[in-house]
Amino acid sequence: MPDTPQPPAPFDVDAFLSQPLVARVATVNASGAPTVRPVWFLWEKGVLWWITGEYAVMARHLERDPRTAVVVDTCDLERQEFLQVIMCGEAEVVPFDPALSRRKLRRYLGDDESTWHPDFRYYADDARLVRFVPDRTVVKDLSKAPS
Length: 147
What we know:
Layout: H1 13-17, E1 22-28, E2 34-40, E3 42-44, E4 47-53, H2 57-64, E5 67-73, E6 83-94, H3 98-109, H4 118-121, E7 127-141
Antiparallel strand pairs: 1-2, 1-5, 3-4, 4-7, 5-6, 6-7
């Protein structure tokens, strides 16, 4: 059966995901229940990246069951702008890449690493990355016209 063409997104998804927003990531825990965590992320070439490590339960969840759902949204009450990107797919824990991690952190903390809190300037030895490529993406603009 041929793929059904997707309607055009109601806004520029790449530009939206290039902002320093928080993603909420849902994974499956050991008992089979969903677990949701907020993460800072980097969106590059259709891949969502975030940092994890031995200190985090998320890495164990993904190693057991890679199914993942991610929501990135905004709620600007003043402008009545409500944008959503909802993605589903599988995520994998991969080796740490300091350059990629720095690109991500610069989005949130700025380019001058000397101003960063020491927790962000020095990476733990057990840090790893999560690589998430969505199989399905739903993009919604639920904004309201000003009254």
